[in-house]
Amino acid sequence: MPKYVRAATDADLPAMQAIIAQGKHLLAVDGIPQWQGAYPLAADIQADIDAHRAWLLIVDGQVAGTAALLTTPDPNYANIYQGSWADTNDDRYASIHRIAIAGGYHGQHLADFYFSNLLTLSYQQGIHQVRIDTHAANQRMQHIITKAGFTYRGIVYMADDPNDQRNAYQLVL
Hints:
The structure is a single chain. The protein is of the alpha+beta class. Helices cover 29% and strands 28% of the residues. The protein is built from four helices and seven strands, in the order βααβββαβαββ. The protein starts with a strand and ends with a strand. It has a seven-stranded mixed β-sheet. A hairpin with a 2-residue loop joins strand 2 and strand 3. It has helices spanning 13-29, 42-50, 110-124, 139-147; strands at 3-7, 54-59, 62-70, 94-101, 129-134, 151-157, 165-172. The chain has one domain (3-172): Aminopeptidase (3-Layer(aba) Sandwich), CATH 3.40.630. The mean pLDDT is 96. It comes from Lactiplantibacillus daowaiensis. Its EC number is 2.3.-.-. Residues 3-173 form the N-acetyltransferase domain. Keywords: Acyltransferase, Transferase.
């Protein structure tokens, strides 16, 4: 089963949208309100592609996962509550967003491989800390995040919305 990570192209948008739709459905089944509105929109995913921050997990030639690796500051991470970001010598960080694995690939531990590759991409760009967030009810993602080596750091709010709280994690490479 050859697997690798590559940059997404415009032609990948339909596959990426399908994976995001599967992720939305899984979250809904689990009763998690994350991604239950319009977000992420096709325009969000297209913006990731256009900015060269969309990365695909490829397994046996098929798109098996989608994620965005941002290397610019995330406004949602400017303020953290009930905790703090770890002090580092460099304030630059990458953040992983809109990550999902296609339904047919669940249970194969591909998220471990995917995260490892995203961390490598960050490191290759000279960025030695990575941040990610997820909904407090999303136990599945919390397990994957901590298994990848991230440490819980506190709470952040999406767009300063007090009703859109996320658990925030950080990994210093």
